[in-house]
Amino acid sequence: MMAATKRMAFGVAAAALAGALAACSGPPGDASGAKEGAHGAKKQAPKAAPKSAVRLIGDGSTAYTGKQPHVSAPERLKPGQTPPQFVVFSWDGAGEDSQRLFSHFREVGKKYNATMTYFLSGVYLLPEDKRHLYDPPQHSPGRSDIGFNDVAGISDTVDQLRGAWLDGNEIGTHFNGHFCGKDGGVGTWSTQEWKSEIAQAKAFVKRWKTNSGLKNAKPLPFDYDKELVGARTPCLEGQKNMMLAAKELGFRYDSSGVGKQVWPKKTEGLWDMPLQLVPVPGRAFETLSMDYNFMVNQSGTVKGDPSRHRFWGNQMRDGLLQAFDRSYNGNRAPLIIGNHFESWNGGTYMRAIEETIKTVCVKRDVRCVSFKQVADWLDAQDPEVLAKMRTLEVGEAPKEGWASFLTKQATAAPSAGAASQVKRAERH
């Protein structure tokens, strides 16, 4: 299980009234909680990685095992073809503890043909007695706002990471110490400090056997230097400098921003796929597409009134389904959903996510996949076609239908004034 010293400092503070937003700080009220998870993707005659291809890397914590199974190659849209509806279920600080939520949502994903992105916190592969190996920017060695792990917790987490990748899921990063706010938080870090944080996040994955003493365990079946292509920052802070560092280190996307349900664009050379503003049924504002934000708006604490738990979970589920419907029947922009392996308010948000997966991932033209798979698909498309799809606003379907819309010559990119309006809307 995860170490008893673990403290969670999650999420993104909620949008309220005029859509005001503040990125995540620590959980309000009672800071207790446990972990939770999910999964998502479409598959084509997958082949298991051949055993003969295994080649250990470094101390044997990771290995090259060939092409990832259960991941199909992206295809370019044909002229006039309706885009698929992508849905990305992603998990911040992915790890397995006594609640077994990581393993649970892996099974949910397999049942509903969904693969997902798991943003691993590197310190979850570092035992408490080795905490001094983490040297966080602007903090003393061995400091972390989410704690470290124990050997049993590391073993359980590695088992899930291994299985998740073999299922076709992506292993991204949520970095390490989850520092938020002005006092040394990630939003104050320089590009060089981010490079150090990323290097350490990789190192804890690449040396988990040495650090934990589990030298006879099976390796993770991927080269993390190649697998790691995307991230979400703690509290959605520090995105600009992190992206500058990540671009130099070969990352392909980021999901640390705040945005709308429109087609992604590139920022600093990376696909910018932010969390999105989605409806809160019965309320006059929207909030971010993350369990933490719904919780803050509803109870302001991880242990709110038990009599309201079911209502709150239903409200989150229905808000996500409304967001799905307006993309599915509108501009077909990818729907981005963020979660934590947590049982806040009695686990009602985990139920909401599972019910959302069951509902949307079985629909026609829907692909519940990882960020990496969306990035692969975007890279395979005609840039002019993507530019035209980006002219569609939230919930806006082509008036003349997709066949006509994507057969005509692509329109010019939006004006500088329109682009600046979108940019302002995506930042708070």
From TrEMBL:
Gene3D superfamilies associated with the record: Glycoside hydrolase/deacetylase
Signal sequence coordinates: 1-22
Keywords of the record: Signal
SUPFAM superfamilies: Glycoside hydrolase/deacetylase (SSF88713)
Segments of this protein annotated with the region Disordered: 28-51, 63-84
PROSITE patterns named among the record's database cross-references: PROKAR_LIPOPROTEIN (PS51257)
Domain of life, source organism: Bacteria
Name recorded for this polypeptide: Lipoprotein
Organism: Streptomyces albidochromogenes
